[in-house]
Design goal:
- By secondary structure, the chain is an alpha+beta fold.
- The chain has a domain of 119 residues: PH-domain like (Roll).
- It has 5 helices and 7 strands.
- It has a 7-stranded antiparallel β-sheet with strand order 4-3-2-1-7-6-5.
- The longest helix has 22 residues.
- It is globular.
Length: 177
């Protein structure tokens, strides 16, 4: 007993499967997060708070007043990093340095963690640009993975685990002496 499927059914199934697959991949790699654009996006004021969205082949940053968009295919490099910033910023942070008995210095040591994502991209005329964003811890790596999945390039591959086999070669050379 053999089952033969008519060729038109296979064609319909194949067309349906190929039309659904790219959309589901794009939806899986979409990222939307709150961020601060430190510098670099054309048309957006430096240190603007807003929403960083990576969807359907574009990276867009939308603040309260303006927005900017970059095609993911134009991104030459994506780098993530970790940093911290003072809890007390602005005039209050500056005035805290005047606290008696050295208390101001201790207040400036109170810091919050954040992550950065830096992109290097080319505009439509081939001009080289860069932009730096800061965001809450744990969100930069997801944004980088979404950019890479949609076609951006990076000079530094995805984060390597902290096991001892991932030591830099210089450390291995130093220990072999």
């Amino acid at each position: 007993m053999s089952f033969q499927t008519p060729p038109w059914r296979l064609t319909v199934i194949l067309l349906f499967a190929t039309s659904v697959t790219p959309r589901s991949i794009a939806q899986q790699t979409a990222v939307s997060t709150d961020a601060v654009q430190v510098i670099g996006m054309t048309g957006v004021k430096n240190n603007s708070k807003g929403r960083l969205e990576i969807t359907e082949g574009t990276l867009s940053f939308k603040s309260a007043k303006n927005s900017a968009t970059v095609s993911v295919g134009c991104i030459d490099d994506v780098v993530t990093g970790r940093d911290s910033e003072r809890v007390l910023r602005g005039p209050v942070g500056t005035d805290s340095m005047l606290a008696p008995y050295g208390g101001g210095g201790a207040l400036s040591l109170m810091r919050t963690k954040l992550e950065t994502i830096t992109i290097k991209y080319r505009d439509s005329k081939g001009g080289l640009h860069g932009a730096i964003f800061t965001m809450h811890p744990g969100e930069a790596e997801a944004a980088k993975q979404a950019l890479l999945a949609q076609g951006a390039r990076t000079s530094i591959p995805a984060s390597i685990g902290s096991d001892s086999s991932a030591r830099p070669q210089s450390e291995e050379k130093e220990q072999s002496w």
